[in-house]
Each structure stands twice: as C-alpha cells, then as structure tokens.
Design a protein that fits this description.
mainly alpha, 2 domains, three-stranded antiparallel sheet, 10 helices, 41% helix, 9% strand
C-alpha cells in the first residue's frame, strides 16, 4: 500500500491557522464577561466594585521600593493604612482569584480552589460567602421522634424563629415541671400526714412511701425536657450566607453528624435529636 503524502499533510495555510488559534476562544462567552476586562475596569473607574486597588495617603520611595519590606511605602505606623471593610478587598497577592470569586458570587457559580496551605483559599471562600446575593435565611431545628427516637425529625423555619420556638417549648416544659412538682409535694404531704395522724400506721413505711413517690415523679419529669427541640442552625444574628470551615473534618461530618452517647441507657442517655450536629 502506498501512502499519499500530499493527501495526508494539511495545507500550510491551515497549519498556520491552527497555530494562531486561541485555545481559550469561546471561554469568555460561556462563562460571562471577560475577567481580564473586569480587572482592567477594577483598576480604573470601577475600582470600588472589584476592590482591585486600595489607596493610602502615603508616599512611596521608588529608590528603596525593591529592597524595602513595605515596598518603599513611607508610613510611621500601620494606623495610617486604611483597611477595607469588606473581606474580599483585604486579600493581598491574589488579584485574579479575587476577581473570579467576585464574578462567581455574582453569578451564583461554584469555585474550586487548589493550592498550597497559606495561599488564602479559606479567606477567599469566606469572602465569597459575604458576597453571595442576600436571601431569606433559615433556622434548622431537630425534634424528638416519638415513633423512632433514633430518627429525629428535622424542620426548617425562617431566620430568628428558631429561638422563639425553643423558648416557647422551654417555657411550656418549665410550667409542666412546676405543676408536676406541686402535685408531688401534695401527695408526699398527704402520705406523711396520714402516717403521723393514724395511730396504727408505721412511720418508717410512710417515709419510704414518700421517698418512692419523690423518685417516681423525678424520673418521669426527665421526659418533658427531652421534648425541647434542638436548634442546630441559628441565623438570627447573621446577614450573609453561613461559612463553615471544614478543614480536617472527616467525610461523615461534612453534611452533619451525630455525637456518640457514652451512657445510652439507665435514664442518663441523651436524646438523639440533642446529639445532632450541623
């Protein structure tokens, strides 16, 4: 079989076109606006939006800029340097990553950051949580499941409503315990009074009966406290999306976990819904 070299090799003009083609052509249209254009705008008129430039009222010595630790910045104390309010504007040395994070937060996209420790990945992630569009935050509650105590019920409510629900359940449990304690002492007084007044009654038996009644009421009152829901996520004091640093956490703890109960029985166990962790 003979190979046709002329048919196998592409024309020279097609080779030149392939070599000159931009490998990232079409990326900007798929992702949105051009990040480089935004970076240029951030350095100019739109600097407050991108946070690409932070100005300080201080002179820079160009002669010692390369050797000086502060790059020739003539300042007496750090109090002369204005620190931006937003965390994303405090990032130093990651201008491109900062602009990408700002764009991703605005477009509600995901960002995967891979790098060595100490390069600012966690700081950028926390800054992105502050830039996400404001939404209606929710509180998460875990309730005791009377059908199966090992499978607590989870409920979401609007922000700041979780604390109100927990306080309402605590107040109801407190009133129930007060009523139970009142009835307990009434029964004990009646038993002891009957033992002392009755001529044929044994005082020791009356005291033992009063002790048994006291223990019975105390043991039964533990169940009312277990009905109080557990506030897993509280967003009452938060105005932005929550940020959780999962560095070093095992795979099972990334989506929540349940603490181990060392007692598990004998009336000393902790209800399952109280051991749920976010």
């Amino acid at each position: 079989m003979r190979r046709d070299d002329d048919a196998a090799d592409p024309p020279d003009d097609e080779v030149d076109d392939i070599e000159e083609r931009d490998p990232f052509e079409g990326f900007d249209e798929a992702f949105g606006e051009d990040a480089s254009d935004d970076a240029d705008e951030g350095a100019g008129s739109d600097a407050t939006d991108l946070g690409s430039s932070v100005e300080a009222d201080a002179e820079i010595d160009e002669e010692t800029a390369d050797e000086d630790l502060l790059g020739g910045l003539q300042v007496e104390t750090t109090a002369e340097i204005e620190v931006p309010d937003r965390l994303v504007d405090q990032v130093i040395g990651q201008d491109e990553a900062r602009d990408i994070v700002k764009k991703a937060a605005k477009q509600r996209r995901h960002v995967m950051m891979i790098g060595s420790p100490g390069t600012g990945k966690s700081m950028l992630a926390k800054a992105m949580s502050e830039l996400l569009p404001k939404e209606e935050l929710q509180d998460v509650l875990a309730y005791h499941n009377p059908d199966d105590g090992n499978e607590p019920k989870v409920r979401t409510v609007p922000s700041s409503k979780g604390e109100q629900i927990v306080e309402a359940h605590k107040e109801e449990a407190r009133k129930r315990n007060q009523m139970r304690s009142f009835l307990m002492w009434i029964v004990i007084i009646i038993v002891l009074g009957y033992t002392l007044v009755s001529p044929g009654a044994n005082i020791l038996i009356g005291v033992l009966a009063a002790g048994v009644i006291y223990l019975a009421f105390r043991y039964s009152s533990r169940g009312s406290d277990a009905m109080i829901p557990n506030l897993i996520v509280n967003t009452a004091d938060e105005t932005s999306a929550p940020f959780e640093d999962a560095t070093g956490a095992h795979a099972g703890a990334l989506l929540g976990d349940v603490r181990h109960d060392p007692f598990q029985s004998g009336g000393m166990e902790t209800p399952s819904h109280d051991r749920v962790e976010p």
